[in-house]
């Protein structure tokens, strides 16, 4: 092959490569322009429609993805979750539940039946530093779980109480552990009863 023919062949090859490369660029440009046109058309018809606007943003994010931000789980510390305490709908049941919770050693359930400031008052009245220590110490004094848990009846016959009620442990036969003094209860939302006051009483009630 003559040098002239070799030069012509190389020139033709370069032209083919140029056409192929240019074709790829053109195809890419067409795709981008088409995406922009669709986005513009959808944006134009979106107006103030938040649903359509969301669709536009979703489409743009698929066509032109951006780096994903750091997830909230990586940047925000997990906060402890606390369930809401459900109170009794009868004042006698509320006090009886305190006895039951102490018999079972359920600190959170027993203390949760008292208003927060009254938890400390209850602890002081039984000679302890805080409500947790009070429940744990009283639990150690329980000699019969079933008898102590059932020292107070769930309900007392008579007219339905309302407002504020006082319940003295020594009104009942407390067995299987120490008597817990006098409770004041206040009716709160949804007819539930919260212990809002406490005063000490004898550890052993006099025979009735």
Describe this structure as you would to a colleague.
- With 208 residues, the chain is mainly α.
- It has 8 helices and 3 strands, in the order ααααααααβββ.
- It has helices at residues 3-46, 50-63, 72-75, 91-104, 107-112, 116-125, 131-140, 145-149; strands at 164-168, 182-187, 193-199.
- It has a 3-stranded antiparallel beta sheet.
- The chain is globular.
- The N and C termini lie far apart (129 Å).
Overview in brief:
This protein has 208 residues and is mainly α.
End-to-end distance: 129 Å
What's the alpha carbon Rg, rounded to whole Å? 39 Å
Q: Please, what is the average pLDDT?
A: 73
Count of distinct strands = 3
Strands of the widest sheet, in order across it, are: 1-2-3
Task: Identify the overall geometry.
Answer: globular
Question: Helix share of residues?
Answer: 40-55%
* H and E string: HHHHHHHHEEE
**Biggest sheet character:** 3 strands, antiparallel
Low-confidence stretches: 18-53, 58-83
State which percent range the strand residues make up.
Answer: 5-15%
The helix tally amounts to 8
């Amino acid at each position: 092959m003559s040098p002239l023919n070799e030069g012509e062949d190389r020139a033709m090859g370069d032209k083919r490569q140029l056409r192929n490369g240019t074709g790829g660029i053109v195809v890419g440009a067409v795709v981008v322009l088409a995406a922009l046109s669709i986005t513009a058309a959808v944006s134009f018809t979106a107006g103030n429609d938040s649903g359509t606007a969301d669709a536009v943003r979703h489409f743009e994010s698929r066509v032109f993805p951006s780096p994903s931000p750091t997830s909230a789980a990586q940047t925000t510390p997990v906060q402890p979750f606390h369930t809401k305490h459900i109170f009794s709908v009868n004042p006698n049941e509320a006090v009886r539940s305190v006895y039951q919770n102490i018999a079972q050693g359920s600190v959170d359930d027993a203390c949760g039946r008292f208003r927060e400031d009254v938890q400390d008052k209850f602890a002081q009245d039984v000679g302890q530093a805080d409500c947790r220590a009070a429940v744990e110490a009283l639990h150690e004094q329980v000699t019969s779980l079933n008898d102590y848990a059932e020292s107070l009846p769930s309900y007392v016959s008579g007219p339905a109480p309302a407002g504020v009620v006082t319940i003295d442990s020594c009104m009942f036969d407390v067995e299987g552990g120490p008597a817990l003094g006098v409770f004041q209860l206040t009716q709160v939302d949804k007819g539930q009863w919260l212990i809002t006051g406490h005063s000490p009483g004898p550890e052993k009630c006099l025979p009735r």
